[in-house]
Amino acid sequence: MAYIQFENIEKKFDNNTHALRGINLSVEKGELVTLLGPSGCGKSTLLRCLAGLESVNSGKIYLDNNDITGLSPKQREIGMVFQQYSLFPNMTVEQNVGFGLKIKRMEKKLIREKVKTMLDLVGLSEKPRQYPHQLSGGQQQRVALARALVMEPKVLLLDEPMSAIDALLRRSLQIEIRRIQRSLKITTIFVTHDQDEAMVMSDQIHLFNVGVIEQSGVPTELYTKPRTTFAASFIGHYNIVKASDFNALSGQRFEGEHVAIRPEVIGISADGKDGGDIWLKGTVKGSIPHGNVLRYTVSCGAVQFDADVLFDASRLFSESKDVYLSFPLDQILSLQ
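Request: output the structure for the sequence above.
Response:
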């Protein structure tokens, strides 16, 4: 049995919302697993069921070969960091981190040692006597993380802990959390609606959609091989086109309801000499820069495609310019 095992988990709320529908999910010891999906899909509800903050209507939850389905939160040995860090404003950093150990009546000397070790780990060794209002959002997040980790939980749960942090700091914290998780080898479940964040941080991703798991796999598998229209629309920026429309344009015979094509695999040129298995003539409708990538929107008959190319000032295509798009056959996916 896996270190964490969810078996046929069902959860309904009083308003008859069916939040989780027969969830079966395994987490191996030491993994960082991400529950990814839009708001209201059930990912945070499953996290709260594991923590004991929500009861399940049916099914079983196992941790380290023990059935914890009916245990109270304090019996589960699970640490959790929420969106709101809930730090005590009248306590210093070291007091916040050591609070749980103090409640356990651990001796003061040992508390000081453990708190110091944890503050070193999260990079706050120079701020033990600062108060939360004196810290940045990222520093507060690391205090909350240290407070959870100092209790030496079997599992760490992170419920969108970086949603209120600006984009630049968020990227550095993603790397920092991953470093800490790997150094401690602590089994971690991370909840986010941000697919880029999931790709950066995860060993495994479980994509949720209206209470079910739409697809599971390692990040590269979910990105390159989505199995459904929902997965393709949520992971990456796929062009999703009706198979019948694409077949009519290209002369191919793709099966299924839709085909999905990543914008970065589509070539664009003025003369149609850049290689590729399928060529379509189109007209540039616009372009949007994304850092070092320029995303063109090109109309081919009644179908529009987004094509991503490296920003090259010597090869810019103006709006209304006629161009050719090239498609490699092995990068066109048929979807359920």
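Residues 167-184 form the longest helix (18 residues).
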